[in-house]
Amino acid sequence: MKRRTLLTSLAAMPALGAPMLALAEGNAIETATQPQQNTWPIAQQYYPRRVRVRPNLEVGSIIVLSDKFFLYHVVAPGEAMRYGVAVGTAELVFRGKAKIARKVKWPSWTPTPDMIERNPAAYKKYADGMPGGPTNPLGARALYLYQDGHDTAIRIHGTTSPSSIGHAVSNGCLRMVNDHVIALYDQVPIGTPVTVY
């Protein structure tokens, strides 16, 4: 019943299908180009791009379209930086509204009990945690999402697997290329509203 309630409340949220959020794919204001060395092993469509969006979106807010694998950071009326993301697998995708309540550089990571239960071979060895650093799956930065003052266990974070961008592969978190999450981290304050569709 809880899942049905969640789906019903999501249906009541304003529709933000990709054609309605980004005015048109051809409306890019600036396009990031790939570095000469392929440091971003991701499809070009997921490179950071400044795009036109609906002018009524709250400046400073973050909007994620999970089915399109895009995160939009609204930077001015009618303009957003768009980044590619990886999202949760079908049964683990997070949807809803939250706020960034914590920001951490090179965060430590501990798998949740649910993660350990789902895949003990992969996660049990990290039950006591893993310090931050270049091999940590949370990557270079993490933005912690809270609802009503409670940690959702969902993060917008970097990744050691940039090739996962554009895929539904995570345990619910939103992964970004480390360079991209560093740029976002530097732009968003605590309290930033996040809506994930």
Give the strand tally: 12
Classify the beta-strand content into a percent band.
Answer: 25-35%
**Overall mean pLDDT:** 85
Name the helix and strand elements from N-terminus to C-terminus, one letter apiece.
Answer: HHEEEEEEEHHEEEEHE
3D shape:
globular
Q: Distance N terminus to C terminus?
A: 20 Å
Give the helix/strand layout.
Layout: H1 2-12, H2 18-21, E1 28-31, E2 49-52, E3 62-65, E4 70-76, E5 79-84, E6 87-88, E7 96-105, H3 113-118, H4 120-123, E8 141-147, E9 150-157, E10 168-170, E11 174-175, H5 178-187, E12 193-196
Parallel strand pairs: 3-12, 6-10, 9-11
Antiparallel strand pairs: 1-2, 2-5, 3-4, 4-5, 7-8, 7-12, 8-9
Model description:
By secondary structure, this protein is of the alpha+beta class. It has one domain (2-196): L,D-transpeptidase catalytic domain-like, CATH 2.40.440.10. Helix content is 18%, strand content 31%. The chain has helices at residues 2-12, 18-21, 113-118, 120-123, 178-187, and strands at residues 28-31, 49-52, 62-65, 70-76, 79-84, 87-88, 96-105, 141-147, 150-157, 168-170, 174-175, 193-196. The strands form 2 sheets. A 10-stranded mixed beta sheet has the order 1-2-5-4-3-12-7-8-9-11, with helices on one face. A two-stranded parallel sheet has the order 6-10. Mean pLDDT is 85; it is low at 1-19 and 31-38.
Short note summarizing the structure:
With 197 residues, the protein is α+β, with helices and mostly antiparallel strands. It is 18% helix and 31% strand.
